[in-house]
């Protein structure tokens, strides 16, 4: 027999597709032809597979070899097809009887010595195999703990091509996945370490409870970065669906920590202000990779010194902040990644950034306007909460009479507020108030009384508030009511929401 077929999986973004790897060996001049839209890395598998087969003690067939990856129109990229290609070649040459591998997905990269090396994206690949009805997969040993996260799939591991050949030929046992490492206790920055800044702490709590974007302005040392870094500590842990999405994205990026467990804590990404558009929203040649925006999915994207970021990078955030996803079109096809994040911006009020604040500022009014003007109006209009922090006083820094609230205490209130919002919007697919469309809040039964929104309507008519800002203040008011245990916002909630949004009482 000169034909054989095995199964593997290819990725487009976070979506896996079952791929049939065919091998046909025909008489003629020795050559290897690879078809099915392979990229450069996959084309190079011809040399890797040949060396791995020979160095594993197997015979390389000196015939004309055609390897085809189906479906042909689907772009294939990466080295995860190496093990499947080598197995199909050995099956087509008559070296291996492939019936033990029927309805089994093979994943892994081959080293020249025949070792099976880990690859990126194993978690979404195995999940795609499970959705296609495949219940058995063979993965690299280093990826096995990650693969067993997917329920309903029997995972076996290999460390060398020789071990896989022995299993197919002689029934030698494959390796079992290592036991998952138990998740350790939560560790990280705590809100109790933040001195003073009652307004900043309140803004952080409201942002966490409603899933709102946040901008923190103020002089150096006021606590902007400290507050932002502690936002994940008061966010709820991720549910199963969100944890699987986040873990799959980090698997594709090759950033999963060892241990083989779902990422239950909201991710935190803080790219440097020199980050390019591609590193921030995703990019690269061929099929685009996820950027910091997608790696912060279901968590926090923190841009410290936000005015120092490139204008193109900041403006590229506008559409994903609205849609919760980023679409990257390249010559080899389009890729879509989820990007539902909480954006936190931190900025000094001016270029000189005196620690004492405006009192000793040396910048002209024009320089101040130009500096913060780097944060465009359309971008800032998408930020729900915008607060200005005052410089810390010695009394705040050295206070010992009362201990600041810990993250655990604040997180309990955030959990209750989110539970109230989820119960209110149940059946609509919205989990936090920031997700609720504005028209829903402006119509019965959720429309607030005219007395509560009269000031907002005046701001809208005068042009000092946009329609988007009007809706965002309504969302903030609902979040404040949830935090304070009220069924509906009252006028004081709307006033506080307006202050958090505009900085004006």
UniProtKB/TrEMBL annotation:
CDD domains tied to this protein: AAA
Signal peptide: none
Region feature (Disordered): 175-194, 485-505
Domain AAA+ ATPase: 210-393
NCBIfam families reported in the protein's UniProt record: YifB family Mg chelatase-like AAA ATPase (TIGR00368)
Family as reported in the entry's similarity comment: Belongs to the Mg-chelatase subunits D/I family. ComM subfamily.
Protein name, per record: YifB family Mg chelatase-like AAA ATPase
